[in-house]
């Protein structure tokens, strides 16, 4: 194996191992400062620069901590004197994801350049194939897509939402919220009606975080789909960490309702809450899952 190809293969395998273990320093190593990544979730114009690239990973690490895999199945490399590219297929998903669709693979293309005598990744492109639903057979349900496929669509919506939150992409966060949404937020008033009202809540939250990194996850996410209606629930885990290492870590309860409109799932209702202390009436914001 030529020396350049061997170096690049080692670099990529080391990067994949760092992704799987949640090692941020290992993920960032051997990447150009002007890295451009086209990822599965938005933003649609891609993630540009090493700082923006760094911000995409905490939600993915949280998802992987639930038992998801990130394993290279095949890797091919073509290397020139100072430019190279590689393409790979990876098993990427939770055990439930892979059991539901054993043949699904994450597709990865990397563009590399030689910089100061060493190879660095200048471009990443991640994607999953867009699978068409199988045509209905006699006796099949006629009230929407296959329930397992619908559940995966709703689960992917959440993953994208978590990534958009980490990227502080307000437009991306609002992309799947219905114009007529009704949301019961942590703060008063009793309800927020309409997407613009919810957008203001999200904008205030991002502004309060300032330059701190933000991550959102629902580790125990449950999904129930019936026809064109989906209900999800679980414990929301929000983590805000500034550059000094100071961290605000909160858990709350969340229930969300989605409706499939014109083939796309939109959130039509959200209910968030903290438990309260019956003796004082104060919200208990420091509770953790037992």
Task: Tell me what the structure shows.
- This protein is an alpha+beta fold and 290 residues long.
- It folds into two domains: 3-127, Nuclear Transport Factor 2, Chain: A, CATH 3.10.450; 147-273, Nuclear Transport Factor 2, Chain: A (Roll).
- Helix content is 29%, strand content 38%.
- It has eight helices and 13 strands.
- Strands 7, 8, 9, 10, 11, 12 and 13 form a seven-stranded mixed β-sheet that branches. The protein has a six-stranded mixed β-sheet with strand order 2-1-6-5-4-3.
- It is globular.
Jot down its keywords:
single chain, 290 residues, alpha+beta, Nuclear Transport Factor 2, Chain: A, six-stranded mixed beta sheet, 8 helices, 13 strands, 29% helix
Distance between the termini: 52 Å
Helix content: 25-40%
> Do you know the CATH topology of the largest domain?
Nuclear Transport Factor 2, Chain: A
Mean pLDDT reading: 89
Protein topology:
Elements: H1 3-21, H2 24-28, E1 31-38, E2 47-48, H3 50-55, H4 57-64, E3 69-79, E4 83-93, H5 95-100, E5 106-115, E6 118-127, H6 147-166, H7 170-174, E7 177-184, E8 192-193, H8 195-209, E9 213-217, E10 222-226, E11 229-241, E12 247-261, E13 264-273
Parallel strand pairs: 1-6, 7-13
Antiparallel strand pairs: 1-2, 3-4, 4-5, 5-6, 7-8, 9-11, 10-11, 11-12, 12-13
Helix pairs in contact: 4-6
Short overview:
With 290 residues, the protein is an alpha+beta fold. The protein has helices spanning 3-21, 24-28, 50-55, 57-64, 95-100, 147-166, 170-174, 195-209, and strands spanning 31-38, 47-48, 69-79, 83-93, 106-115, 118-127, 177-184, 192-193, 213-217, 222-226, 229-241, 247-261, 264-273. It folds into two domains: 3-127, Roll (Nuclear Transport Factor 2, Chain: A), CATH 3.10.450; 147-273, Roll (Nuclear Transport Factor 2, Chain: A).
């Amino acid at each position: 194996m030529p020396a350049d190809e061997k170096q690049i293969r080692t670099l990529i395998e080391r990067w994949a191992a760092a992704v799987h273990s949640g090692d941020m320093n290992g993920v960032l190593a051997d990447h150009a400062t002007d890295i451009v990544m086209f990822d599965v979730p938005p933003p649609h114009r891609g993630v540009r620069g090493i700082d923006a690239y760094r911000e995409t990973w905490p939600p993915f690490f949280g998802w992987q901590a639930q038992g998801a895999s990130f394993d290279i199945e095949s890797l091919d490399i073509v290397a020139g004197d100072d430019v190279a590219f590689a393409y790979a297929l990876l098993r990427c998903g939770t055990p439930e994801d892979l059991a539901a669709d054993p043949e699904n693979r994450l597709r990865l293309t990397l563009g590399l350049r030689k910089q100061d005598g060493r190879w660095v990744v200048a471009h990443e492109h991640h994607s999953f194939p867009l699978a068409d639903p199988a045509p209905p057979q006699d006796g099949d349900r006629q009230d929407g897509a296959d329930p397992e496929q619908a559940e995966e669509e709703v689960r992917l919506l959440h993953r994208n939402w978590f990534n958009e939150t980490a990227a502080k992409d307000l437009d991306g966060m609002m992309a799947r919220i219905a114009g007529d949404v009704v949301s019961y937020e942590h703060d008063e008033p009793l309800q927020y009606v309409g997407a613009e009202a919810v957008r203001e809540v999200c904008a205030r939250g991002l502004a309060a975080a300032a330059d701190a990194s933000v991550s959102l996850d629902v580790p125990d996410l449950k999904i129930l789909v019936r026809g064109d209606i989906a209900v999800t629930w679980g414990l929301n885990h929000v983590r805000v960490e500034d550059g000094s290492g100071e961290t605000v870590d909160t858990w709350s309860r969340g229930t969300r309702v989605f409706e499939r409109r014109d083939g796309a799932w939109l959130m039509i209702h959200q209910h968030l809450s903290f438990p309260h202390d019956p003796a004082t009436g104060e919200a208990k914001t420091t509770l953790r899952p037992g």
